[in-house]
Structure formats: C-alpha cells, structure tokens
Amino acid sequence: MIIRIGIALLFLLVGIETNAQNLVLNGGFEIINTGVTPPPWGPYAVGYAPPWRSLVGTVDVSHPGAPVDLIQIPYLGNGCMRIGHGPNYEYVVGETMPLTAGQVYEVSYFVKKYQDIGSSNIRGVALEITPNMPAAVGFDYINDFNPQFQIEATSTTAYEQVIYCFLAETDGVHYIIIGGKGPPVPADVSNYYAHLVDEVSVVLKTDLSDMPTSQISGQTSFCIDDNIILDGSLSTNETSYQWRVCRINPVTGELQEIYIGGFINGQAGPFDINACYRVLLYTDNGCLARNSFDFCYINPQVLFIYNGDPVCEGDLLNLSVTGDNGWTYTWSQGGTLIGSGVGLNTMSVAPTQGNSTFIVTVLTPEGCTYSETLTLTVHSPINLAPQMDGIDTYGTYTAYVTAGDNLGFTSNPSNDNANEVIDYTLVNNIPSNFSYTLVQPSDGSLNPLTFFWSTSPYTPPGEYTFTLTLNDKNKCNPGISSFTYTIIIICDQCPVCVYYEDRGPSPQTPLPPETETGQCITAGWSQPVSTGTANVLFKAGQYIALGPSFNAGAGYQGIIDPSTCLTDCEDCCQNWTGFTYDPIQNFINFDDGDPATDIWQMTDINHPYCAFNAKGYNLDIINQYGNSIYNSNFTTTACCPFSSPAPENTITQSEISWNGYTTNIWGNQVPVSNGVYFYIVTLYGCNDESIQLNGNISVFGTAGIILNPDDSAELKKEQKERLELATAEIEVMNQLRQKVYLSPNPATETIQINGLENKENVNIHILDANGRILQVESNIANSRFNISKLASGTYYLRIYVNDSFITKKFVKK
What we know:
By secondary structure, this protein is mainly beta. It has seven domains: 18-204, Galactose-binding domain-like (Jelly Rolls); 221-298, Immunoglobulin-like, CATH 2.60.40; 311-379, Immunoglobulin-like, CATH 2.60.40; 387-490, Immunoglobulins (Immunoglobulin-like, Sandwich); 497-560, no CATH class; 587-707, Immunoglobulin-like (Sandwich); 740-812, Immunoglobulin-like (Sandwich). Helices cover 3% and strands 39% of the residues. The strands form 18 sheets. It has a five-stranded antiparallel beta sheet, with no helix packed on it.
C-alpha cells in the first residue's frame, strides 16, 4: 500500500471561546460534598469533589473545609486539585456531559507548580480524553495511560493554560484522566512534589474557519498482490497528517485497527485476503479533521471440494471447487484443456495413473485470476495383496526359543502398487515384555518389521502367536493378507536343535541313547554318524534331518512329536511340601573369639544342599530408627539354589546371612554399633507361596573396630574387585546353565551331560526331591554317569564347575 502519512502533535495556546458551556462536570472543583465517602485520606481527598475520583494514589482537593496546609490559591473560585509526584505518580478521573460524534471540542486546563524544588524532579502534567471508562485501578493502570497532550509547568506563582482541539468519534459521556507523564521520581526522594490543576474544560468549537479538511481518493477494489495507492493530497489547511487502516468485520461491521503509520509514500501490503478495509486519514493544524475510504480485495482463491480418498482408475468423478458463479473457470487435465465457462465450478473427469493432475484457473470480472491444482491418488484395478517374508532365511513363520533366551527377527513387507497406503493391525498372545516396530513412511510403503522378545525363565513353555493383518486399502479391489508368526517356547533345560557329526562306535564318541530337542536334530551331513548296534532314540519337535553320512542301525528310532520339550519340562515344584529352616540365630558377637558367631545367618542342617526349600529370598536389616541398613535378595527358577552349613557341607555360611556391617556416608563398609537390630526375611517358594520371618539381632563387641575414612579408596577398590569377580562368576554360570543339557531325559541306564567344554573333570551330586545326596561321582569320563541303581522318579543333578554349581532335573524311568 502506498500511503502518504505524517504524524505531528501540536498544542495550540489560545483563549477559550466566551459564553461556551463547559461540558466537564465540576471542572473547577467548586462543588464539595462531604457526604460522599471518599478514599481514606479524610476531608482533603478529591473524592469530595464528585464525580472526580482517584485512579492511582490519593489525589488531594483544596477547598475551604480542607486542612490549613492544603488550602491553596486556585486559578478561579475556591477549589483546585493537587496531584502528587512522589515515588509513584497519582492519577485522577472525571466525567463530561454527553459529547456528539463528529463535533470538534476544545479541551483545556490550568496548571502551576506546587513548590519550586528544581525541574529535574518535576514531570509534566498530562491529560487524556477518552470514551472508555478506565478498567484498571491502582498501579495496574499506569501502563494504560495514553494522553493526547501534556504541559511542563514553569512557575509556582502563575497558572499556565493548555488548549487542545479534540474530534469526538463516538456519542456519549467521555472521561478526563489527568496524571504525571515521564520517568518516575526516584524512590529515595523524601520530599513530596506536586502540581496544582484547576478549571478543566471541554467546550464545543463553533468557529471552524481554521479547521483542516481531509480528502482521500483511489480505487475501491484490488486484486491479490496489487499495490494499493490511496491519495490524500486533496486535503487542505493541514500542518500534519496520519494514516490509520482498519479491517471491517464482514459479519458485524466492526472495525479492527491493524495499522497506524508514519510512513510517507511507503508501500504496505497486501493485507489479509478476502476482506474489506477502511482507511482513515487524520489531518491536523491544532484541530483535527478526519475522513474515511473503504476498499476491498477481490480474492478469487478457490479450493477443491474433495476428501482426499484414492479413486479407481477409469471411474468417473465430479470435481468441484469453491467460488462465485459469476467467475470464469478454465479446466485442464495433464496440461490438456477439458472445459471452460462462466460458473463452471464442477467438472466430470476420468482420472488414470500418470494423468491425474487437474488445474482450474479462475478469472473475475475485475480481471483478478487464480489457479489451483489437484493431483489425485489413482489405484489400479489389477491388485495383489501385500506380502511378508518369514522369520528365517527359509521363509518359515515359526521360531523356537529356550525359555530365558532372546528372540529377534526382521521380516520384510512388500506390495505391488507403491501409491497404496497400507494399514495394519496386530493380534498376539505374547506377554507384554516384547517390542516390535513396523513404521509406515509417507509414501505408503512399510519399513521392515523388527521383533524382539527377551523371554524369561518363568515364561511357560508353549505356543505364542504374533499375527499381522495388512490391508492395502486399494479403491478398486482391496488386498488383505494375514501373517502369523508362531513362537514356540521350550523347556529351559532343553536345546532348540542338536547337530551330530563324527559320532558312533569306536573310535568316535558314541551317540547318547536318547536325544530330545524342541525343534530339530541333524546328523551325518559332513562327517559319518553311526548308531551301531546301540539303541538310539532321536526325538524332535519339528524335524529330524539325516545326511548321506548317517548310518542307522537296527536299534535307531526317530520320532517327530510337537509336544517334545513342551510337556515334560523340569518342574522343581512337583510335590513341593513347604519351606524348611532351623531356629533362627538372634545375635552377633565379635568379642567371643568364635568366628562362627561373627555373622548372623539362617541355616537348614537337614537339607544342606537344598536349603529352605525356597526359590528366592529377601533380607532386610533395620536399625532402631526404622531405617534399612542392609539388604540382600536373590530369586531364580533353578532347583535347590541355596545351601546350608552342615556336617556333610562344610561351607562357612548360607546365602541368607549378615556380617554385621553397613555402608557409611563415605561409601565404606563399617561394623554397626552395639545394639539391637531387627531382621525381616521373606522366602519365596513354589506356587507363588511366600513366608515372612522377623525378629531381633543383638550385636556385641564392635566398639574396638574402627574403619578410617582415609582408607575408603583402597576399600572401594577391593569391594569393586570382589563385585567384578562375583559378577563374572554369575555370568559364567548363567551361560553354562543355558548351554548344558542332559540326554536322554527321561533315562533308564545312563545320562550324558552335554555342553561342557572340560569333559575330563566333572564332579556331580545326585539329590532326591528333598535335597538329600544319594550319589556322588568324581572325574566322570566323557561326562556320562550311570543311574541304573536309582528307583523310578524325579531327581536333581548338581554339576560342580570350579567353586560353583548348576542344577538340572532328570527323570529315571
């Protein structure tokens, strides 16, 4: 928009026209009404001169009834107002009689200094006349004060007058607001500075011979992106001017001011499209004149009325656009003209792949143009449903995993038409601790499916499914396909597959009498494998693959049974009879010279190798203030994980024990003070059963044991090394527990331990269901041992590796 704009504020110092009616109510502060309830400053508050009242602070009024120190010399009459300039300014508001819109009024008031204290701390007195009653009061109002003019008083003896010419823009009562304007007086100034104000006046201006005129010329309609040029050069008698632009609400007709300018011959635009505006030109020479000019944008912008759904190739489709019926619409498809006419805002089209872009161009009678483009998604009637590959390279959709192991796979989806947006749904019966991703990019394709499940030893063996249904949402012929990924969890002591090469009668290692796997057994593909004359059973859940080098004797039998390693899993809880433990110790004595009493522990002498008949525990030691000073815990699915000191088991302490130490503020292990402590032991058993035991522990003889804080670095290093060794040992045993399995299982004569790297030095204990040792074998040759003397039933095999052990269950037929 090119607009000639200028801003100037002139204050005209002239006399008030004689015989003119003052439209300010009580403008001379002569009417005093002590019956009015003013602000709390008593008989000298401005509230006694109604309708004046304070907005900020408490403005004073001088009248004959005021205190002596406030009786001041007014400009006229007996009353005047004192407005202060302390650390914060004071503001006062009064009222006028109803004013008339379009009329010009002269606004004036008289002011002088209250005392001469130097101009640096005296600010001007400003006035605002407005049709709006101030909404805020108190100091919240200060930022809302927007005066039209102000005066810097120079005298303490003579009043000075300021007159301003005001053009009323609305009918009705107006409000006169008077207050300080400028930087606030510093808060540390102790004196009180003020001005006296009198004879506030608003009178109708009757002589308009010196009034400026305001004229605007220009065109009344514009197209989008046109420059808007409005000319105010026909205005007369002005010494300054200002442009303002308002948007006209098309429904209510209300004006919203969007631009107040000081630009001269500057360009601003375009404004918001599809709207009309009113431009206001103010001209000023001390009195103000105003004129307005309305103009509108012609906005031919159109939008396609289309929900965005794909269409089937060759189907007829009616495309419509928004717009006026008096406009001319020109249609093209793929660059070829297909129709044109006034009001032709609907066109019947037949989109095809590669020719589905439509352009409509609009021309208005004013010469404004606009083009809109729509590209449709077109589906082919020749359609195939989406596809996905399987879990492994063979394309199968079944995976086997031993309980406690991890399973992860990637499956790649594909589709024949790239512009189809594939939707997918998932149904599964897998526990919640698994994750998958199948992200769909913006082009409608699918990224590979990634799946990961860290199974738990507690995951029940069985079949789990993960079913994806893919729908390509083809408009012509939707393709829907479902893919079910089956995950078979097998017993935690059972291998998924076993691979035999170079096995058989001497000199090879003989095959075990029975091999059971959850999924597969392969033998004899690269090296000879022979069963010889022995009875050999291969039993697998999915397949047995015998290679060209496999030689089966008369005693060989191969069985495919899907329930293998699913229904005969190790069950430590079979015939579980509850928890077992000895009477619990209630003291620690560091002072009696007996190392056995330097620790507190739970024991189970009658079951030294299967202590407590528990699968887990939690121990808390509590001090006399109720704070936990020690905690240990352990939970597993293995059978008989705990041991107890006993004559036949010469370990120094059980797993459920406390050495009387705690961690201090420096992170060091230090003995606790002598006193009584409280223990809480929770044992976890089979069938989700648990028991909580508690009691007191009296600690003696710790007074002479002192741990220097300066030793913390060395102690922390030692503790770290112990922790690393323990962690490494636990990891080795966990790996060993996953690799080692027994075959055959169930067995009748002998059992082979598979998965051990060192087969020359294997020591084992065979325990019954109650943890009693029935048989001990040392340095077993080829990790094989004889069970022919055992009665039929369930037994536990404890396999010792270095100073630790793992436990496996087997069944004797």
